[in-house]
């Protein structure tokens, strides 16, 4: 009886440790979402066969792309040496498809000189999306960068002059030219470009742990690369530079190369109107 009692004590103690050390997740469990997590300091997390950065306090983030599998899991090695798997169930989404005809052919099918520019632009963007800095600026949360009508949503796909394009990887906010564009969260300016082929005047901000935000088509840029920016600080103005058919801001958020839906991440009330 004594041996059985001791065995039961070990069983319940072990389960209690595992329950206490499981990751606490916060965010929408749906395709396109960003989830913040908390584990015991000193834990290690593996996700998709890669080690996730965990802060000294146990904070980490996970991102689920547009077509992420609905069944996910993370492997956690806690400070006590226990390894276990935590399952994550995501909700499936449907996305909007629109057709736009009559665009200049050069914007739909770039010529060889344009392709060189595009490759150089993509290299700069790719460099930022490889960053994995230890800062945790994302913990301050995200706000809207400007106010206006939502003219383009995450995950939608456009067919330009009859040719399907890549899914939209952010949110378009239609606003008057010159409207202030604000940093959606605290961070460090990781890229400033005055004339990208597709995106025109472009700014990218690093928020830590591989999370970055991008602001494009602006008419004016007010920041410099390497500058520390606080949430709500002006970084530029709405415009229609690059491939744009009217003044608007394209705002995107990525965890490394995984594009996320800003509308699932932003907090606080706003008078931004959704697309009809």
Helical stretch count?
Answer: 4
Query: What is the tally of beta strands?
Result: 21
CATH topology of the largest domain: Glucose Permease (Domain IIA)
* N-end to C-end Cα span: 70 Å
Order of helices and strands: HEEEEEEEEHHEEEEEEEEEEEEEH
How much of the polypeptide forms β-strand, as a percent range?
35-45%
The name of the CATH architecture of the largest domain is Distorted Sandwich
Question: How would a crystallographer describe the biggest sheet?
Answer: 8 strands, antiparallel
**Domains counted in the coordinates: how many?**
2
Cα-based radius of gyration, to the nearest Å: 22 Å
Name the shape in a single word.
globular
Q: Considering the protein shown, what is the CATH homologous superfamily of the largest domain?
A: Glucose Permease (Domain IIA)
Q: Which structural class is indicated by helix and strand composition?
A: alpha+beta
CATH class of the largest domain: Mainly Beta
Mean pLDDT: 88
- Contiguous low-pLDDT stretches (5 residues minimum) are 4-20
